[in-house]
Amino acid sequence: MDNQKLGLFKVVDDKLELCGYFDTTEQITEYLGEVTQMIETSFQHQLEGEYLAIPSLYYNLKRK
Fold first, then answer.
1. Given Cys at both, which of 10, 22, 34, 36 links 27, Cβ 3.0 to 4.6 Å?
2. Gyration radius from the chain CA atoms
3. Alpha-carbon distance 19 to 35, whole Å?
4. Which residues face 8 on adjacent strands?
5. How far apart, in whole angstroms, are the C-alpha atoms of residue 55 and residue 42?
6. What separation, in Å, do the N-terminal and C-terminal C-alpha atoms of the chain show?
């Protein structure tokens, strides 16, 4: 079981807001490309800012 993921965070007022978990840097690049497109074409200015990709261990525990 591979639990390694990349957590993508947006820096907002010196805090980190989780954007999601990704398996590869290519997926993050694709996601950020879509975000850039939304900023450019849909005037989603609240999406502008700094983003951080942080390697993490991801667990989704469930009751059996």
1. 22
2. 14
3. 11
4. 20, 53
5. 30
6. 17
